[in-house]
Specification:
The structure is a single chain. With 464 residues, the protein is mostly helical. Among the domains are: 154 residues, Serine Threonine Protein Phosphatase 5, Tetratricopeptide repeat, CATH 1.25.40; 99 residues, Serine Threonine Protein Phosphatase 5, Tetratricopeptide repeat (Alpha Horseshoe). It has 26 helices and no strands. Helix 7 packs antiparallel against helix 8 and helix 17 packs across helix 19. The longest helix is centred in the first third of the chain and has 21 residues. It starts with a helix and ends with a helix.
């Protein structure tokens, strides 16, 4: 069972299933069997995002819970395995917008883990589940929070991440190291804005990214968040061989973006097309076509650009932020200034001096008429990374906020968030609070969920 788990975390599902078949013949009552079968289905859904597989696999859930419940209730794995199955399905359902059922499953998992923690306080796998749940309390949309409140679920990002990180230092948890490292990275990136923590996690992953797909994804996302695009490209170019593994096509999408950040249009196009050809899910399809439309726009290939804008409207779905933004952009049927777009791409890749040159060399302010909120926002982001004085950076963000607060662009709320973070760093907590609240007062803009999530977490920090 330990070997099968290792294969599962490496996405080697065929090898894992062979071991599970042997176990089924030799120890048919072993409930770990169905937990591992559930792991395989869960990872297949999260990575592949195929609606048909999701519909078929979710029918197996109640039988698996029943099978575990028929097992040895004196084992610390008895309640843990049930909680894990509920938790995995909650994640899978969030992917397919089944929020109400997901909220109940999170509630159920929490109750089981709390009970198990009381009965077996030294059973460390409890902390893996509870750390995840404590961090995720705020991730369920507000209209379903009442379900979570029914069991008095409490937690917080800092508590949950601290619990997970404590397990990374624990030799007894060595077998679960890759999974915990992946989960911690995922949560740290989505719930915080902490570059020191990103660097620490990248150091812990070290060269393991070339042995494990999940850690390759984690290292690529961390290096991107740190503005280390050359490292991101290196990580993705040195991903594990795909033979015998469940395909992780999203890594092609990430590689396409990484090459786009360095303005290598040819390689970028190749990886986006590879992703679109092979990926059978619905997320990131519109976004991939959006990036191809950008490449055509920057190369002044207007016919290709129009073709991609049509594809954005027709293909994939608009559920995640990246796809919603792509669709909104396509419906305008035009892109903004090429200088602003190149500056944005170079900034996202960590090429800050080059990004600044795009906005400042041989340019007149009138070049950005109609896009002033974006211009000041991008200038502030770049100057912040180039270590300009906080006062100057705040002044640029303030201009972006004032000019953009009535539009549906994300530049104003994101500027408010960034000002809040600067004031928090300066320990001017009252001013930080004002700007986190300003961010939260704006709604119906691109990337709203992620930006609001970070503002909410910031507000909790400065209020406490």
């Amino acid at each position: 069972m330990q070997q099968s788990y290792t294969h599962i975390i490496n996405l080697e599902f065929e090898a894992a299933n062979k071991l599970l078949q042997i176990e089924q013949l030799e120890n048919p009552d072993n409930a770990i069997l169905v937990l591992h079968q559930n792991y395989i289905d869960f990872l297949t859904i999260i990575i592949g995002e195929e609606a048909e597989f999701f519909s078929t696999a979710k029918e197996l859930k109640s039988d698996r819970i029943d099978f575990i419940q028929a097992g040895d209730d004196s084992s610390p794995y008895y309640l843990y395995a049930q909680a894990e199955v509920h938790l995995q399905w909650a994640f899978a359902r969030i992917k397919f917008e089944e929020y109400l059922t997901a909220a109940y499953e999170i509630q159920k998992a929490y109750s089981l883990l709390e009970k198990n923690h009381e009965q077996f306080p030294n059973f460390k796998l409890n902390i893996k589940g509870l750390g995840l749940l404590h961090t995720l309390v705020g991730a369920i949309p507000e209209k379903y929070q009442w379900v979570i409140n029914l069991v008095g679920m409490e937690g917080g990002v800092e508590l949950g991440l601290a619990e997970l990180k404590s397990l990374l230092q624990d030799e007894e948890m060595e077998m679960y190291h890759s999974e915990i490292l992946f989960l911690t990275t995922f949560l740290q990136l989505n719930m915080t804005n902490n570059e020191i923590a990103y660097k620490q996690l990248l150091d812990v992953i070290a060269s393991e990214y070339s042995d494990n797909y999940l850690l390759n994804f984690a290292a690529a996302r961390l290096s991107h968040a740190l503005g280390k695009n050359a490292l991101c490209i290196k990580v993705l170019e040195n991903r594990p061989a795909d033979q015998g593994k469940y395909p992780f096509h999203y890594l092609d999408y990430l590689q396409g973006i990484s090459y786009l950040y360095s303005l290598d249009y040819e390689k970028s196009e190749m990886y986006f097309n590879r992703f679109l050809k092979n990926f059978k899910g619905n997320n990131y399809i519109k976004s991939a076509y959006q990036k191809l439309s950008w490449i055509a726009f920057l190369q002044q290939k207007s016919d290709e650009e129009m073709g991609y804008l049509k594809k954005i409207k027709l293909e994939g779905r608009a559920f995640i932020d990246e796809d919603k933004v792509a669709l909104k952009e396509a419906e305008k049927n035009h892109l903004n200034s090429p200088k602003l777009l190149r500056a944005r791409l170079l900034y996202d890749g960590g090429y800050y001096e080059k990004a600044q040159l795009e906005l400042t060399s041989e340019n007149k302010l009138s070049d950005y008429a109609g896009f002033f909120d974006e211009y000041y926002y991008r200038l502030a982001r770049i100057e912040s990374k180039l270590m300009y004085l906080d006062e100057q950076v705040i002044a640029q963000y303030q201009k972006a906020f004032d000019l953009g607060k009535k539009s549906k662009n994300y530049y104003a709320p994101m500027s408010a968030l960034q000002i809040g973070l600067i004031y928090e760093k300066q320990e001017k907590l009252n001013q930080a609070k004002i700007y986190f609240e300003k961010c939260l007062s704006l709604s119906d803009f691109d990337y709203e969920r992620g930006i609001h999530q970070k503002a909410k977490v910031g507000l909790v920090r400065v209020t406490n």
